[in-house]
Amino acid sequence: HCCLRTFQKLTAKSGTSITIPCFYDQKYKRNVKYWCKGERQESCTTMIRTDYVRKEGQVSITDDPKQLVFTVTMKNLERKDSDWYWCGVKTGGGAADKLAYLYLKVTRGVQRVRTKSWISAERGASVTIPCHYDLKYKNHVKYWCKGETWAFCSTMVRTDSPQKKGDVSITDNPNLLVFIVIMRNLQEKDSDTYWCAVEIDGGSDDGVILPLMIRDGETESRNRETQIRSSVTPPVDPSDEVTYSIVALHNRECVFSSSSFRAARSGQRLRTKRGDTAEDTHSHSVSAQLNFYTHMAPLFFFVFLIFTRVP
């Protein structure tokens, strides 16, 4: 929905390349875009820009105004490239730049289950996700899991049963060493982290992460005027913090808020996205009702006197 969107976290293998999308609003088609590295937006280092420095070493930037997206490609990744990055749009006129952050994690080791780095689709569309695996997993059960944390993700479909659930289906092709997941009629609620996974009897399951972003169609983006109301500061250490974002459309505006909660070392339980949102909404609703009855009490009393007067 927002003026500038990207994935909050992406993962890539050392030695490979990754292309990162930054989606923006129609009104920023002609603005300069840039890619910035560093933990904080006010002190990050601009690496490349769409106006003059379009390539620097292994990093390049390309703008596609027709699709309302600019992409950053980072080649020959190394472990030292693991860091916070920012998609940026110059606004000019003394206004603050529009920024959206992500954390890029570069890992080493053998990857026995592989898929795309990320997938983005428009609302109402369908996507087909290929999950490739090693020969040793040819006869294993495969499944599709939803949730940010691998250990607690929720299985949606499996190659044994159920192979189809709602708008999600899974099919294994052992001859090609790939299983296919199809998601249809995608909605905003489907924006989440998913996992291509292989079940290992008597051992830890193997899997690979895949972020999925659902966005409005180009026509809707063109007709919507949006703005970011609050600045966004990422957590210092992604390994010990839980980050969530709430995006809501309100009166033709885009209100974006991001909150970070540090997970206590003692294992204090944190509220989930859904639970936290529901509780906040409920408290606001109760407060509004109390204010309503407080202000309307004199009117109710006046009406009562009129109808109870003795003729």
Query: Helix segment count?
Result: 2
Give the helices and strands as they follow along the chain: EEEEEEEEEEEEEEEEEEEEHEEH
CATH architecture of the largest domain: Sandwich
Please tell me the total number of domains: 2
Please state the CA-atom Rg, rounded to the nearest Å: 24 Å
Side-by-side strand order of the widest sheet: 1-3-8-7-6
Alpha-carbon distance between the two ends? 61 Å
Helix content: 10-25%
The pLDDT mean sits at 78
| Unreliable runs | 219-295
- Kindly name the structural category: mainly beta
Q: Kindly provide the name of the CATH class of the largest domain.
A: Mainly Beta
- The CATH topology of the largest domain corresponds to Immunoglobulin-like
Beta-strand portion reads 35-45%
Major β-sheet annotation: 5 strands, antiparallel
Primary descriptors:
single chain; 311 residues; Immunoglobulin-like; 5-stranded antiparallel sheet; 5-stranded mixed sheet; 22 strands; 41% strand; globular
What does this structure look like?
Keywords: Membrane, Transmembrane. GO terms for molecular function: transmembrane signaling receptor activity. Residues 7-107, 116-215 form the Immunoglobulin domain. This is Immunoglobulin domain-containing protein. It is found in: Membrane. The protein is mainly beta and 311 residues long. It folds into two domains: 4-223, Immunoglobulin-like (Sandwich); 241-307, no CATH class. The protein contains two helices and 22 strands. The protein has helices at 218-223, 273-307; strands spanning 4-5, 9-13, 18-24, 33-37, 45-49, 55-56, 59-64, 69-74, 83-89, 98-107, 113-114, 119-122, 127-133, 142-146, 154-158, 164-165, 168-173, 178-183, 192-198, 206-215, 241-250, 253-262. The strands form five sheets. It has a five-stranded antiparallel sheet, with no helix packed on it. The longest helix has 35 residues, at 273-307. It is globular, with a radius of gyration of 24 Å. 22% of the residues are buried. Residues 219-295 have low confidence and may be disordered.
